[in-house]
């Protein structure tokens, strides 16, 4: 992608960090770019309401690339604000991140039940207090320990609000949708957050405890959408998740006929995920085929490659990000 860094972004990020409570033992630094790199240009930050933004993408054959676990890279850990900033400067606008809760009730970004794989520490999330977690250091995708620390969800939400990025929030079992949505409201990030559901029951719970929230919910056509509506879900706030196994153009067509945006994931276990298959020949045409078939959100473990390959994400964001 080719975009120009919005003037004043660094100041906004510093202001966001300053909103963290003064009692925090660790101030997480925001890295603007890796040494020697030149950030490409970027488009206007998101200011349109999320339902309107996704409606516009659907109507204009646009797409967004969602970076799984925040888009980890060499030197940049998963579920870190610094990593999202790194991706944002490279044209990625949507970041899927994982939300856990500490023993003393602080929401923070972490995927696993235990520390170790991505954090230079041991123990369970639910058994560890935030003051301890805040001092841990994150590992990058090669397992190298970095200078970055696990961030609070609040700080990630403020970052998204200030940059105009979108964060997809994946609830881990140590916390609740109600707690996550309370943090979203407190950060003023309702226009930047999407809640992820994995069942009809979870979708119904989100509709109940987070009215007005945009969500992903499993759906493949009109009957699924009607079932969700029967559970209190507003179809205008649904992005239909269609899985990670095989593209389903017929389902995409059915969803588009219902004015619902289809989403598909090429992510997964290394060696088995579609990302690996699609890039085996260094050709990303399969992603363009998804766009041509109507997919509006592509969740991927290769966000940098996909974002570089596609043009529909640039064009869609430029056309739809502002009212």
UniProtKB/TrEMBL annotation:
Gene3D superfamilies: Phosphatidylinositol (PI) phosphodiesterase. It holds the Pfam family GDPD. One of its GO terms (cellular component) is plasma membrane. SUPFAM superfamilies: PLC-like phosphodiesterases. One of its GO terms (biological process) is phospholipid metabolic process. Residues 63-310 form the GP-PDE domain. Keywords: Signal. GO terms for molecular function: glycerophosphodiester phosphodiesterase activity. Residues 1-22 form the signal peptide. This is Glycerophosphoryl diester phosphodiesterase family protein. It comes from Hyphomonas polymorpha PS728.
